[in-house]
Every structure is written in structure tokens, then in C-alpha cells.
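call fold(seq) -> C-alpha cells
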Amino acid sequence: MTDLQKLNDLREMLTNMERTLRVARTVIAELSGEKPLVSSDQYLADRFGGLDRAHSNSEGRIIEGVFDGVSMQDGEGKVYPVPANYSSKSKIVVGDKMKLTITPDGKFIYKQIGPVERKNVVGPLVFEDGQHKVLANGKEYKILMASITFHKAEVGDDVSILLPEEGDAEWGALDVVIPHTEDAETYKF
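ret:
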């Protein structure tokens, strides 16, 4: 068996395991009366519907896509880097639809064109495995470093992050740092 065949077999095994996990999570949600979560990949795939095909006009090349937490992906799977400062300051959330204009001189101009429904969750900011994360609702959500510096957040701070209302996101958008108070009872989560 060649390395390529082994690699393809491993990919197929992972796909089957992911499918089994999705089914198991759905059954657990149904049995417990919870609303089932959609996987990150499926959630993004569902958001690709209604995107315009890439085209050009006098302003440049226009591409529509979906934000994945770090980049914009178009409907054909091409990935375009979104400046971390822009996504942090604009609080772009996984699943938001975006438009990219590539000007004739090569400048990338992004615009958010279809925000998803959002929810806030609160948790402590941690730093693990070289990545800032927020621990909330029994999960870890990655946070862009640009958001940490923009909001002047520090490890140990309680923060509120934005997540898509639907779907299971790996990335959250830092919304606010919750100020520490002398009276720790002020904020109960």
C-alpha cells in the first residue's frame, strides 16, 4: 500500500468518525430535549448558499465568501486572508457573509454583507498551546491575538465573546472585557 493510499484511507476513516460523532451528538440532543448543534464545517457549507459568483467591474474583482474565524472562504473553497485587525474591530463572527474587492492595483477591500444571528457567552480568557482561548459553556473558543491587544485583555480576565446563534464554532469574536470590581458578587455567571 502506497503512502497516498494510506493517506486516503486515513481521510476516509476520519470522515466516517466525524459523521458518526455528528449522529451521536444529534441523538443526544434529541434525547435531552436540546436543539442539536450543526458542525462547524456543515454550518459554513450551509452559509455558502446565496453567494454571488466572482465577477469583475470597474472597481476590480468582486468575490463573496463566508468568514471562518480567521479567513474568508468562497463557494469554491478558495481561502482569502482577512486582516485580523479588521475582523477584531468589526467583531466579525464565524458564518458572516463577506465581500472582497480586489482592486486593479492589488488592494484587498473587505466588507461584511450578511451578518449571522449572534449570541454572547462569558468566560475566562486563558492561554493554552500557544493560543488565546475563552472557556465557556464547557468548550474552548479560540480568540484572535489582534482582539486581545485591541481590547487590552489579559489572561484571567472574564470576557464576553460573540458566537453564531446556530452551529458549532471554533472561533469567537471578543466583544468586551468585563471589568474587575471590588465586589466579586456584582457579576454572577
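The mean pLDDT is 83.
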